[in-house]
Amino acid sequence: MDLRAILKGKTALFFTLGCKLNFAETSTIAQELQSIGVEKAPDGDPADICIINTCSVTSVADRKGRTLIHRVIREHPNAVVVVVGCYAQLKGDEIVKIPGVDLVLGAGRKSEVVGKIAEYFAQEGDLSRQHLFSATREHLHRFEEGCSSDDRTRHFLKVQDGCNYACSYCTIPKARGVSRNGSIASLVASAQRVAQEGGREIVLTGVNIGDFGRSTGERFIDLVKALDQVEGIERYRISSLEPDLLSDELVDFVASSRSFMPHWHLPLQSGSDTILRLMRRRYPTALFSNRLQRIKETMPDAFIGVDVIVGMRGETDALFQETFDFLSQQPFTQLHVFSYSERSGTDALKINHIVAPQDKKIRNQRLQDLSQEHLSNFYKDFHGSVRPVLWERSEVDGMMLGFTDNYIRVAHPYQEALAGSITSTCIGVQENNDKGYCLSEIV
């Protein structure tokens, strides 16, 4: 089948929900379509193809997916609508019944999207049929590459997929399959392509990237060392990394590396050892605290983001207070707080004591307030200091935005010549709380 002959001249729009991994995968699909003549539909124009990459980490994510699907169908009634991703994998039989949805492909079949779209268009006169292509065990054992790019200088490189952990509240292993990865050689080649295209920063993404090597027998630390040698990439950031997989060797290397930034993101999920056991997490709070202390001892300026879930089944008032008290003593920078969401088929549903929605809301807000306190103090610690900032290309209210090496978001009056460059910048004393950045002055 000649994909170019079938699809050339078509236009497409792309919609992505969820994690950075999804954005990397959507970008790969977009690049493949572009290579055979499919262009992005101009703003406001109807598209021939609409691809929706979904998330299913919570019930809220499912609801956002459904809402987006209905909106896209309403705004592009003549488009071939394709739904992919985790929600498509877990609830594909429901999605395919939505009038206006044409193709549904599970999480492990994103590499087949372009071919399936071409087959659909080639059916001439029988385009009313809907198709569901769920990922099988074989698909969920295969690694599909992904690397996103947009109008910023940052790229998201997929290095790993799937998860072998079995946390009691999580559906992601069912949606994405077993832990698997690309080879170090192939990922270095991807980073080199990003550098050739002018990219300056790469974020390493995956479901459980610390588990890198299941497919190839390699180690995550060796991937990090190899990427550090790629010329042209000035910055790397490591996305969410399980605390039990964060080694002293990795912390020490990042602290002394050429291009890996002092920026970490660790999922704690609960500061109560009782709840961690109910969640089937693989570490106690003592190990988590040890990892944070190790980072701060080695990289005092590091930004540390921490994921926390509130309202898990079994979380009494006393156990939540344990979490609050534990976090109050930890040197994190910012919390990413999620309210527990019941997911069908998970073992967490067997746990007694359901937390009332109003209690989840209160607990969430308490941790949000604690997070804001820590973040504000972190910003204050660096007011007046000079740090390197990578400036992005987009313009927001006449300002250009950028991030310091340790992930402080700063703004400066827009100067097109600065886009994509790294400058020494003085972090201003005025923080714009509404916009979430600090004013700055280039020195």
UniProtKB/TrEMBL annotation:
This is Fe-S oxidoreductase. Its cofactor is [4Fe-4S] cluster. Residues 149-377 form the Radical SAM core domain. Coiled coil: none annotated. SUPFAM superfamilies: Radical SAM enzymes. It comes from the Bacteria. NCBIfam families: MiaB-like-C, MiaB/RimO family radical SAM methylthiotransferase.
